[in-house]
Specification:
Elements (H helix, E strand, L loop, with lengths): L1 E10 L2 E7 L1 H6 L5 E5 L7 E9 L4 E7 L3 H6 L7 E2 L1 E6 L10 E7 L2 H14 L3 E8 L8 H6 L3 E6 L6 E2 L2 H10 L6 E5 L2 H11 L5 E5 L15 E4 L2 E4 L6 E3 L5 H8 L3 H13 L1 H8 L10
Parallel strand pairs: 8-9, 8-12, 9-10, 10-11, 12-13
Antiparallel strand pairs: 1-2, 1-6, 2-5, 3-4, 3-7, 4-5, 13-16, 14-15
Helix pairs in contact: 5-6, 8-9
The structure holds nicotinamide-adenine-dinucleotide and FE2/S2 (inorganic) cluster.
């Protein structure tokens, strides 16, 4: 079992969990993810590792409650435990000394971008972070990203915090202002990553995105996570999750991610109608049955 040590609400329906998972905490690298199962009948849900403390044996996961499993997870707290935390999975981010780096976190994408942004800073890069959210209360990790960035620009769609506009507006200003940019990491919703790719393509700025295709096993066996990159079929779980943004077929990714929308909505309605049934399954396993 993987006990939840702490949980904290960062924004409405976005929670930060600290989970005891010593082996994952020791081995994980920025950019990797885990697949969790909350209980024995639960689906396998991929979640990017938002941080780790190898000495304490604890990993951090930041969860936005949008589907059945993430909504259920956000009902849990200390005293509860996850049944499985498999990982670390996926290829770690490519951390190099690129020079001037822009890290873009759209919405909960900021949680995924943070560990890589921190590693890029530690590798000697100059880091400009752009943090975007629909509105002020959805801005997350500003303090954490600010602490490892040379510059941080916040933007909200409604102008309630930072500049008014999308992350791409802030990026366009940097590019058009003649700022030197050697590398961009953009993580957020698919339309955002597609828009960043189109913005940087004519300027030939190396741009990397972290994709979130449908995943099942997370180890290259099921093919569920296939994405088209550079005209070739790649697996998000083992070849990614990070890919060259200028090569990704975002349209195909968006349409594959919509394939099971109806079933996902029905499962979500079932859980929300009777969360107790799922919570009882979670509480059948005890945090004391810990793994090392
Ligand atoms: P959101 O829709 O609130 O968008 C966050 C920010 O992204 C916006 O404030 C804006 O600045 C920017 N953005 C959004 N659409 C844009 C566009 N068309 N052009 C330019 N900028 C744009 O984000 P959210 O609610 O956090 O996430 C929505 C979806 O994205 C969820 O389904 C989530 O699973 C998915 N997501 C995926 C990843 C990933 O792994 N790549 C990360 C975060 C979220
Ligand atoms: Fe099954 Fe990637 S999740 S192959």
């Amino acid at each position: 079992m993987y006990p939840i040590i702490e949980s904290e609400e960062l924004a409405p329906d976005i929670k930060r969990f600290r989970i005891r998972a010593p082996r994952v905490a020791r081995k994980q690298r920025p950019g990797q993810f885990v697949i969790v199962r909350v209980h024995e009948r639960g689906e396998r849900a991929p979640l990017t590792i938002a941080g780790a403390d190898p000495e304490e044996g604890v990993i951090t996961l930041i969860v936005q409650g949008i589907g059945k499993t993430t909504k259920l997870m956000n009902m849990l707290g200390p005293g509860d435990a996850l049944l499985d935390v498999a990982g670390p999975l996926g290829r770690p981010s490519e951390i190099r000394q690129y020079g001037a780096v822009v890290v873009i976190g759209g919405g909960v994408g900021a949680a995924i971008a943070y560990p890589t942004a921190k590693a890029l800073k530690e590798a000697g890069n100059r880091v400009i972070s752009i943090l975007g959210a629909r509105t002020k209360e959805l801005v997350i990790l500003e303090k954490e990203l600010g602490a490892i960035s040379d510059e941080l620009l916040a933007a909200t769609d409604d102008g309630s915090y930072g500049r008014k506009g999308l992350v791409t507006d802030a990026l366009r200003e940097l590019i058009e202002g003649g700022r030197r940019i050697d590398y961009i990491l953009a993580i957020g919703p698919i339309p955002m990553m597609a828009a960043v790719a189109e913005l940087t393509r004519p300027h030939r700025i190396k741009t990397v995105v972290s994709l979130n295709p449908i995943m099942v096993d997370g180890t290259g066996m099921c093919g569920g996570c296939r994405v088209m990159v550079g005209g070739r079929m790649r697996f998000g779980c083992v070849d990614g999750p990070e890919f060259d943004a200028h090569e990704v077929d975002f349209k195909a990714l968006a349409s594959r991610n919509r394939l099971y929308r109806e079933q996902e909505q029905a499962a979500l309605r079932r859980v929300l109608a009777n969360p107790q049934a799922d919570l009882e399954l979670v509480r059948r396993h005890r945090p004391a049955e810990e793994v090392s």
